[in-house]
Amino acid sequence: MTKAWLIDMDGVLVREDHPIEGADRFIAALQASQTPFLILTNNSMFTRRDLAARLSATGLHVPEDQIWTSALATARFLAAQRPNGSAYVIGEAGLTTALYEAGYTQTDRAPDYVVLGETRTYSFERITMAVRLIRDGARFIATNPDPTGPSSEGPLPATGSVAALISTATGALPYFVGKPNPLMIRTALNKIGAHSETTTMVGDRMDTDVLAGLESGLQTVLVLTGVTHSEDVERFPYRPSRVVASVASLIDGVTSESIAEEPAGS
After folding, report:
1. Has 10 been annotated as catalytic?
2. Domain 4-42+179-260 classification at class level
């Protein structure tokens, strides 16, 4: 029985700035049943406040504290590894804000880390600086391994693709903090006080969402509203617990589990 949910955002609840059919009813069912859940996204561009506002504009009303991003996970990881360290950062406000709040100084002068996140405006000059700093000894961190991201015009190169470029130029492989790293899953479980054996991960990517849930001991649900098609599933050496058309298919399960947990005579 699922007692808590970790839910990817893009391709599961929204597609660009449009809600996916049934997402509002799925979130409403979780809230009505007081089922713990956390929206878990590899998107490092935006702050939690930005993402909550974006979801609200599509009719999905989720509090900021129920959103967890790869940027926040990266900042927490670095603060634990090297408190009050320094980093050269390629990314947007979601990442720079998270690192600032974690006590990190952002600099291009002998930083402890080069931290790569997602942006729609990757700069050749900044990538060149990252390459030189890594060659000079900075440690290489990336928020997530996603090779592409969505846009209204089609897929865009994302953090994983740019990380591969930097790795080729430096010979250094990054440490990816976001999904499928179980580190991000464990952090999310701790935030909502959930146990892996009774938590389900819902996502649209086999190589991040499903793999992260599988390696963390969660049940996994793949939805077909994002980047993965049904025929793609068989290409992987592992399978999700369930494959469904969309989160709309999960609403009855949330409701029935909530009823099943009510005490007799209620």
Report:
1. yes
2. alpha beta
